[in-house]
Each structure stands twice: as C-alpha cells, then as structure tokens.
User: Fold this.
Amino acid sequence: MDSHLSLCYTGIRQSISRPEDENLNETLESVFRHIEESAKGNESEGSFARLFDDFDVNSNKLRATVAKRNEKLVKLLNGVADMNLGDVKDHDIDAFGDAYEYLMTIYASNAEIEMDA
Assistant:
C-alpha cells in the first residue's frame, strides 16, 4: 500500500485546523473527493475508489445546522487523529480502515438515537 492514506489524513487535519472555515462540511467533501482522485493510477486505486460514499458531511442526521455539523465533524476527525495507529508500514492489518468502520458504526448509531429523541 502506498502512502496516500497518511498524506490524505494530513490534508484533512489541516482543513479542520481552520476554525474560520464556516463551510467545513463542504471543504471536507472536496478533500474526500480529492483523496479518491489522487489514488487513481496507483496501486491503492481500488482501496480508495468510492471510499467516502457513505460519509455524508451534509446530512441533517449529523446535526441540524451547518455550524453544529462542523462541530461534530471536528470531534470525529480529531478522535481518529488521536488514535495511536502507528505507521502503516509497520502493520499488515488495515488499522485505519478498521477504525474508520468502527467510528462510522458509532456515528450511524448516534444519528439514529438523535433522530429518535
């Protein structure tokens, strides 16, 4: 696997470090599409194709307002960043992918709870 994953997550973290970005959700959507595009023609292309299709940063399920959505997105992305996943070259497991799936499951569960409340 090439280094797209660590490079792209650095880009995401840079995006969320700008609190003045009132359209963070749209910025992230653009970053996610760029990540998928950047893998085209590389060994990892199949792993990144449609990777973020289920990550809807504009969903009302995330929060009712853009400001609240952005707040939730920052918490989610910082939570992933704070995980000690190590260097991808030192592992033969997909720790980031597993963490992503786990967090998306929690995200979906929390969204359903909030919709029921």
Summary: The mean pLDDT is 75. The two ends are 42 Å apart (CA to CA). Residues 32 and 52 are 6 Å apart (CA to CA). DSSP finds five helices and no strands in the chain.
